[in-house]
Design goal:
The chain is mostly helical and about 140 residues long. The chain has helices spanning about 15-25, 30-35, 70-80, 85-95, 100-110, 120-140; strands spanning about 55, 65-70. The protein has two domains: about 15-70, no CATH class; about 70-140, no CATH class. The chain is globular.
């Protein structure tokens, strides 16, 4: 579920199809290490997400740098698609610590809403997701 930012140049792949063959679902890498790249070709992300990317295993690999979305940015990147998988991901993130509705509201308003092709729909989706997060937080107390 972690979102990875990966430059195809840094990976040595010249296109996404090659990258998917090397490291995507069902690839030898995925079978051996139980991890794969889920390539997303269209996503609307918060404007300043790169400043918040989180290094994963920073000292483990010599020639590979893995970075993941910070949890609020990951939720907001899923907002416009709002599929079943996205809603389930948000539920799972809400169960863990640190998913704050106020941070979601602020980043959406300042970094994402202006990019939306359907802001009314995205406003409603965010409101529903925040309601779900608050219910999960209330049950956990």
């Amino acid at each position: 579920m972690a979102g990875f930012a990966l430059s195809t140049e840094a990976a040595g792949a010249t296109d996404l199809k090659t990258l998917a063959a090397l490291a995507g679902k069902g690839s030898p890498l995925a079978k051996q290490h139980h991890v794969y790249l889920d390539i997303v070709t269209v996503a609307t992300v918060p404007e300043d997400y790169t400043s918040r990317l989180i290094d994963i295993y920073p000292e483990t690999f010599k020639n590979l740098r893995l970075r993941a979305f910070e949890r609020h940015d990951l939720v907001l990147a899923k907002l416009s698609r709002n599929g079943d998988r996205d809603r389930e991901d948000v539920r799972r993130l809400a169960v863990g610590p640190g998913l704050e509705p106020e941070i979601l509201r602020k980043r959406y308003a300042e970094e994402l809403r202006f990019q939306s092709t359907n802001p009314g729909r995205d406003d409603l989706t965010l409101a529903l997701w925040i309601e779900m997060i608050e219910e999960i937080n209330a049950r956990a107390k």
